[in-house]
Amino acid sequence: MITNASDRTVAVSFSPRIWLAPLLLMLLLLATECGGEVVRLALRFDRSAIEAGQWWRLLSGNFVHLGWYHWMLNEIGIAVLVMLCPESLSIAVLARRVLVIGAGMALCLYRFVPSLQTYVGMSGVIHGLFVLGLLPQVLKRDLISLGCLVFLLGKLGYEQFAGAPISDEAAIGGSVITDSHFYGALTAFAYAVVFRVWDQPERLIPRFAGKKPAPGE
Questions:
Q1: Are residues 179 and 116 in contact, defined by beta-carbon separation less than 8 angstroms?
Q2: C-beta neighbour count of 214 within 10 angstroms
Q3: How many C-beta atoms surround the C-beta of residue 72 within 10 A?
Q4: What's residue 198's pLDDT?
Q5: 88/18 Cα distance (integer angstroms)
Q6: Nearest CA to 152 among 77, 88, 87?
Q7: Going by C-beta distance under 8 Å and a sequence separation of 6 or more, which residues neighbour residue 59?
Q8: Separation CA 161–CA 50 (nearest Å)
Q9: Which residues pair with 45 in a beta bridge?
């Protein structure tokens, strides 16, 4: 959590079990970026290709980027997420978070942003991951986490009205699809309710409210 800047909290943030799953995700993003333009074109969200039956692009577009600078920003985003919200997530749970947020966000883009033809990048998923990382701490009345979540929500609201700064688009070499941030966060809130992210550790099989836990749970 980010309640304190104590030595113990810092030590937790650098624990190998905290970093294992995020590092695998970061390595996957590195691998796809090393594939260059060929991989980018093969995996990006492409509306015409999706309409032709290539549905996997709804998900795979999250794992490729416009270029190395765009890739670096998202890698830094994942690192900051782990530092601010260190969680001992299994590889399976983090993979589920990424896949559910990524698919939900892309489906919303496909359905509600018909003008969007192509899209790449992990930023929408990362916004959702921040929601899932901060929310359990907010529910524990962590005021710093609450401030971070309020800032994140304010950022999303600002982007919906004002769009992304021109400087950001110039830096990454393309348009910032702010709707991806909004729908990524929205999907994350839905995920939080279904999978009860405040449970520690998060279960692979959701336990709905009112259901008694089975022996050993």
A1: yes
A2: 8
A3: 14
A4: 80
A5: 5
A6: 77
A7: 99, 102, 103, 106
A8: 28
A9: 119
pLDDT of the chain, 217 residues: tens digit per residue: 444 444 444 545 667 789 999 999 999 999 999 999 999 999 999 999 999 999 999 999 999 999 999 999 999 999 999 999 998 899 999 999 999 999 999 999 999 999 999 999 999 999 999 999 999 989 888 898 899 999 999 999 999 888 777 666 677 877 889 999 999 999 999 999 999 888 766 777 766 544 554 544 4
Residues in a beta bridge with 46: 118
| Residue 167: per-residue pLDDT | 62
The fold of 7-195 is Rhomboid-like fold (1.20.1540)
Q: What distance in Å separates the CA atoms of residue 200 and residue 208, rounded to the nearest whole number?
A: 15
How far apart, in whole angstroms, are the C-alpha atoms of residue 133 and residue 101? 13
- Secondary structure (H, E, C), the chain: CCCCCCHHHHHHHCCHHHHHHHHHHHHHHHHHHHCHHHHHHHHCEEHHHHHCCCCCHHHHHHHCCCCHHHHHHHHHHHHHHHHHCCCCCCHHHHHHHHHHHHHHHHHHHHHHCCCCCEECCCHHHHHHHHHHHHHHHHHCCCHHHHHHHHHHHHHHHHHHHHCCCHHHHHHHCCCCCHHHHHHHHHHHHHHHHHHCCCCCCCCCCCCCCCCCCCCCC
